[in-house]
Each structure stands twice: as C-alpha cells, then as structure tokens.
From TrEMBL:
SUPFAM superfamilies: Thioesterase/thiol ester dehydrase-isomerase
Name of this protein: Acyl dehydratase
Transmembrane domains' residue ranges: none
Organism: Pontibacter ramchanderi
Xref: InterPro entries: HotDog_dom_sf, MaoC-like_dom, NodN-like
Domain (MaoC-like) ranges: 17-131
Length: 155
C-alpha cells in the first residue's frame, strides 16, 4: 500500500471517480472492544462476555461494536490519503452506512476507499468517499457507506 498525498483542491479533483487505495489490516482485540464499551457505556454482553457469546451467538465469539468499526475510519483513512496544506478537516456526514456482517474478536479489518465526488464550496473542498470495511478472509464486508469530509485548505 502506498499513501497518496494531496495538498490542494485541484489535486483532490484529479482523483474524482477513482479508487484511492486500501489501508493496512488492523486487528480488533477484546481489549479494544472492552475499552470502547467503557468509553461509550455500551456493555452489551455480545461484546464482552466471551463464554456466553461462544455458546449463545451464531458468531461463536464476541463481536466488535458496529460503531467501534466506524470509529476506525479516521485512523484507516489516514493510511490511504494524507491531506496536507489544510487549516482544518471536518467529518461532515455519513450516508447510506450499512452494516453487512459482524466483526468477531481477533478479526483483521482494512478500509477500501474511492473518491466519488469533490465540490468547491467557496474555497472549501467537500469530498464524498465510498468506504468499505473489509474483513480478512471474508467475501462480505463489515460495512459500506459514503463519508463526506470538508477540507479547508490554506491559501
């Protein structure tokens, strides 16, 4: 994987309609799931009770919170694209997010990204990125969706 560097609205526009790449794999650990549960106060047993999850769920293990996998977007996105020369980046919107498959503990996931559109909003770049969180050795992704970032480039 090689990271793309983009430093201007014009450079962003040149990637419109193109796949940007994929991130490295990230392993979802039980400790990460527990820490996310503590941070979000979501302590549902399917995420935390390893014994019960093994017996009572079709996954045969604990699963990551869907929102934990979504929260990995900035980390994984930064492995694909480095946006330089910006005053500020704003996470603006997530559209059509669909969770397709649970991510079991110790699964490895990676992000695949495609630049759908770039619009110039009076000097602010509004980008729509198609994202797919892939699970290693699975044909079905964890989720798909479209994220929108706003980039305020330096003049």
């Amino acid at each position: 994987m090689s990271q793309i560097t983009i430093n201007s609205l014009e450079e962003l526009e040149s990637y419109q309609g193109k796949e940007l790449g994929v991130s490295e794999y990230h392993t979802i650990t039980q400790e990460q799931i527990k820490n996310f549960a503590d941070a979000t106060l979501d302590h549902q047993w399917i995420h935390l009770d390893e014994n019960r999850a093994t017996i009572e769920t079709p996954f045969r293990s604990t699963i990551a919170h869907g929102y934990l996998t979504v929260s990995l977007l900035p980390y994984l996105w930064a492995q694909i694209v480095k946006i330089g020369n910006v005053k500020m980046q704003v996470n603006y919107e997530i559209e059509s997010l669909r969770f397709n498959q649970a991510v079991t503990v110790n699964s490895r996931v990676r992000l695949r990204a495609k630049m759908l559109s770039v619009k110039n909003l009076r000097g602010i770049a509004k980008t729509q990125i198609e994202v797919t969180l892939e699970i290693e050795n699975s044909r079905k992704p964890a989720y798909t969706g479209v994220v929108t970032f706003l980039y305020h480039f330096n003049d």
